[in-house]
Amino acid sequence: MPYRGALILGCLVISYPVAWCATGSTVRFEDVTTQAGINIRHHLRTYHGKSADVLRMFTGGGAAVAVGDYDNDGYEDLFITDSEEGQPNHLFHNNHDGTFTDVATEAGVAGGNDALNIVSDAIWFDYDNDGRLDLLVARFGTPLLYHNEGHGRFKDVTAGSGLNEFGNTIAVIAFDFDNDGYLDLLFGNYFQPVNLLDLKNPHVLPNNLDDATNGGGVTLWRNTGKGTFEEVTAKAGLGKVTGWTLDVGHGDFNNDGLQDIYLACDFGTDHVFLNNGDGTFREVTEKATGWDTKKGMNVDVADYNNDGWLDIYVTNIYDDYMKECAMLWQNMGDGTFTDVSAEVGVCDTGWGWAAKFGDFDNDGWQDLFVANGLRSAGPDNYLTILLPMITRPGLDFTDVNNWPDIGNRSWSGFQKKRFFHNRGDGTFSEVAAEAGINNDRDGRGIGVIDFDNDGRLDLVQTNADQAPIVYHNVSVNVGNWIELKLIGTKSNRDGIGARVQVQTAGLTQIRELDGGNGYAGESSRRLHFGIGTASKIDRLQIRWPSGRNEQFEVPIDSISSIEEGRGVLR
Amino acid sequence: MNKWLPWLVSILVLAASAPSIGEVAAEAAFRQGMTAVQSNDFASGLHYLELAITDDPDNLRYASEYRQAIIRRKEFDRSIEFFEKLLISNPSSANLHLNYGFAYVDKIPVVGSITQVILANTALGEFTKAVDLQPTWIALYTRGESYLFWPRIFGKAPLGVADLERALVIQQKSTKKSYFARVYVALGDGYCKMDLPDKARSTWQEGLRQFPDNLELKDRLSLPMDDLLKHIENGFDPNKRVDTDLRAIWSEGQ
Questions:
Q1: Could you tell me where the DSSP H helices lie in A362-452?
Q2: Average pLDDT, chain A
Q3: Main-chain phi, psi angles of A339, to 5 degrees
Q4: How far is CA A498 from CA A205, A247, A492, in A?
Q5: Closest chain B CA to residue A320
Q6: Between chains, do B154 and A387 touch, taking CB under 8 Å as contact?
C-alpha cells in the first residue's frame, strides 16, 4: 500500500484540513451545472382524476441520465429525461470546453412524454454494431428505439423493432446475455402492464408492502441481429419474477465468462440469476443471498475490495421509521454473497436511489456515491397520515383509493447525499460534506462521466421534479489513471460484458463494462482505473464477451481505444 | 352442629389459601412443558405450556416461558394465534393481553419493515388494553417503553414518559427490586426523545443512586450528548430483538 502511505504522510506534512486527513480523502467536487449550460429541470407526470395524487407519488421517478459519446468525437455527451406530458427530453452535446448544448430537438430525440406514455429511463447502446450509439428510451408505456443515423441525427425505428409491448418499465440495461455479438435488452417493470394514465381498475398497488407479488417483473428482449428484438422472458427462465422491479444489473458473478443478473425489487425480495450459457438463466437467490423483505432500489456491480470477484450494491430505505440497511453483497467466490454493508460503513443511505461505484481519487479503490431523498415539500410529514392507513386491519393496500393524498407533505425529503470513500482496508468513510457533494435534492439517477477527459471522474445527479446537478471533480493530489474505450468485433461493438484486469505495483483490479447498471443512470462507456502512484501498467488483460483473451500495453494518464483482435488504436 | 364449626372454618381457610385444582393442574402442566422444552422436545413442551396458560391465563410466568420457547422455535404465528383464541374466553385478563402484545413484539425482528410497524401498532393496542384493565407496574412499564420505539415524527414519546412516570410512582411505593432500574433507564430515554436532556440526566443519576451497579445507567451518564442520542436510538432498532423475558419479575417477586 505505498500510495496510501504517501497520502497519510502528505496529510501530516502539508497540513491539509483535519477532516481531510482523518478520512484520507482528497476528493472534491464543484457544482458546475449552470456554467455547463445544463439549465433544465425534471417534471413529474401530472395525473388526472380521483387517484391522481397517489399515482403521482407512486411514480415519483423518471429523472434519468445516460452518458455516451453519440457522435464519436471523443467527448461524452448526456441524455437527460423528463416525465411530464409534453416536456422534452434533453440531449446535451459536449462542446469540449466544459459546456453542453441541448440538441435534442434537432437530433430528433426530444419526444416521448405523451398522453399515454411517461419517460422513465434511457440507455445508449449500439444495437446494430455500426459503431454509433443508438438510444433506447424506456417508458411507463411502450419503449422508444432511436437509431443513430450519424451527423447528429436519430431515427425512431421503434415500429419495426418489435419493441411494441406495453410495460411500466422503470429500468433498462443492455447486455449480450446469449453471447451472439448483439446487445439484448432487459427491462425492469414496476407495475403490472396497466396504463396508469387511463386507469380502469384501482387495484394496482402492491398487495403486500414487504413481500409483494403483483409487480411487473422483468421482460427480456433478444436482439435478433437483424434490427429487431424478440421477447424471450419465459424462455430464458425469467417469467416467474412478479416483484416490483426497480432496477436491474448484470455482471459475471461467478467468473465463468457469462453475464448474470441481479434484480432489485421494491416491497419484497431481490433475485439473483446465473447464466446457464444456453440462453437461459437459473435462479439462485436462496443460496446466493437469501430472500429479503426490503425495498430494493438500485443495483451496481463492482469489485470493491479488489479480490477478483464482483460485488453488488443495493440501496434500500433507511430512515427514522424504517431501518433497512443498504446491502453490499460481498461475493464470497463460492456462489454465495454476504451483506457487509453495516460492517464496512455503507448501510445508512437514507431513502436510497441510484448508487454508483467509481474511483474518484484514482487511488485504486472504488468509492461509492449514493443519491437519496423521496419528496421534499412542505413542513408536514406524510407518514403521520400514512401510518393509520398502514395499520388499519384488513385494509386492501392494492386499492389506490385507500391511500391518502400526499398533498404538499414531505416524505423522507431534504436528505443529504452520501459519498462513501473507500479506505482501501475493506471499509468506507462517509465524506459527502467534505467532498462538496452533500446536496439535499430528491436524487434519482447518477451518471459517472469524465466530461473533460482529465482522468478524474465527474458526476451527474438527476433529481425528481427538480434540476439536475453536474459535479466537476476538482480533487487534488489524485493518483494516476487510465481510461479504456473498448471496441468489440466478434463481441458486441460496445464491448459490454468485457472484463478488464489491470495489475500495477502490487494491486490487481478488475472492471466489467456494463450496459446501464444503477437506477436511472447509465455511466461512461469508458472503463476508468485509478492506479495511485504507479507509473506504469504491469499487465492489462481483456476477456472479451466472445471469450477471446488479449493483453495490451497502454500509456498511463491517457484515454486508449482498444479493438478486439486488433489492439490499441493510435 | 357447633362441634363441627371449628373444623368447617379450618377447611374453608385452607381452601382459600391453597392452590385451586386448576392451578395445581396448570403448575403440573407447566413443569411438564418446561422439562420437555429443556430437552428440546418442543412439540410436547409447547403443548403442555399452552395447557398451563389455558388453565391459568393470568400467569405471567407461564406465558413468558412459553414465548421464550416460541422464540427459540421461531413459531411466532403459533403464539399469536394461541393468545388470540385464549383472549376470546378471557377478555379481562390483563396479563393475557400483555403477553399477546409481547407475542407480536417477539415477531418484529423477523419481518419486513412495514410489517414491523403493523405488528408494533397491534402490540401497543394490546398493551393499552392491559393498562386499562389493570394499570400495574409491568403494564405501564411495557407500554411506556413500547411508545419510545416509535420515531419522533409520531409524537408518542410524551405518552411513553407519562406511563413510565406512573410506573415510577408505583415502584417508589413498593419493595425495591433490581428490575426497577429499567424504569429510570427508559424514562431518561423518553426525556431525551422529548429533547429534555437535563431531565434525562437527573433521572439516570437518581436511578444510579438507587442502583449503583446498573451498567445501562452508567453508560448513559458517561456518554457525550451526540453519542448518547445515537446510543439511545440504536437501542430502538426494530431489527434487534427486544428482551421480553419476564423471568426477573418472579425471581424477585412482583
A1: 383-390
A2: 94
A3: -75, 115
A4: 39, 21, 9
A5: B151
A6: yes
Contact call for A323 and B237, based on CB within 8 A: yes
Nearest chain B residue to A391 by CA distance is: B118
- Name the residue in chain B with its Cα closest to that of A412: B153
Which residues neighbour B91 within 8 Å (Cβ) at sequence distance 6 or greater? none
Given a cut of 70, whether residue A478 has pLDDT beyond it is yes
C-alpha cell recorded at residue A347: 448501510
Quote the mean pLDDT of chain B: 91
Phi and psi dihedrals of B214, rounded to 5?
A: -70, 120
Give residues with Cβ within 8 angstroms of B46, minimum separation 6.
B33, B37, B66, B69, B70, B73, B75, B78
What does the alpha-carbon distance between residue A356 and residue A520 come to, in Å, rounded to a whole number? 11
Q: Are A56 and A403 in contact (CB under 8 A)?
A: no
The interaxial angle of helices B181-193 and B215-222, nearest 10 deg, is 30
Backbone angles phi, psi at A77, to 5 degrees: -105, 175
State the complex-level ipTM. 0.82
Please tell me the predicted confidence (pLDDT) of residue B105: 97
pLDDT of residue A9: 35
CA proximity to A67, closest of A448, A370, A466:
A448
Mean pLDDT value across residues B211-233: 92
Closest CA to B108 of B252, B245, B243, B227: B243
pLDDT for A146-201, tens place per residue? Answer: 999 999 999 999 999 999 999 999 999 999 999 999 999 999 999 999 999 999 99
Q: Using the CB atoms, write b or e for A17-37: b if 16+ within 10 Å.
A: eeebbebbbbbbbeebbeebb
pLDDT at B254: 57
Q: Amino acid identity, residue A52?
A: A
User: In a 10 Å sphere around its CB, with 0-12 CB exposed, 13-18 middle and 19+ buried, how is residue A223 labelled?
Assistant: buried
- Bridge partners (DSSP) of residue A106 are none
Note the pLDDT of residue A5: 36
Q: How far is CA B66 from CA A377, B48, B107, B152, in A?
A: 48, 9, 14, 33
Among A92-101, A135-144, A333-342, A380-389, the minimum mean pLDDT is found in A380-389
pLDDT at B20: 65
Site of grid cell 437527573: B202
A395 touches chain B (CB under 8 A): no
Contact B228, B192 (CB under 8 A): yes
Handedness of CA B163, B164, B165, B166 (dihedral sign): positive
Q: Which residues have C-beta within 8 Å of that of residue A226, sequence separation ≥ 6?
A: none
Which residues from chain B sit within 8 angstroms of residue A209, using beta carbons?
112, 114-115
**Rg for chain B (alpha carbons), in Å?**
21
Residues 6+ apart with CB under 8 A from B9: none
Specify whether the CB–CB gap between B142 and B129 falls below 8 A: no
pLDDT, one tens digit per residue, over A28-43 is 999 999 999 999 999 9
CB B64 within 8 A of CB B34: no
Taking only the tens place, the pLDDT of each residue in A342-364 is 999 999 999 999 999 999 999 99
How far does the CA of residue A322 sit from the closest CA of chain B (Å)?
6
CA distance B81 to A206: 26
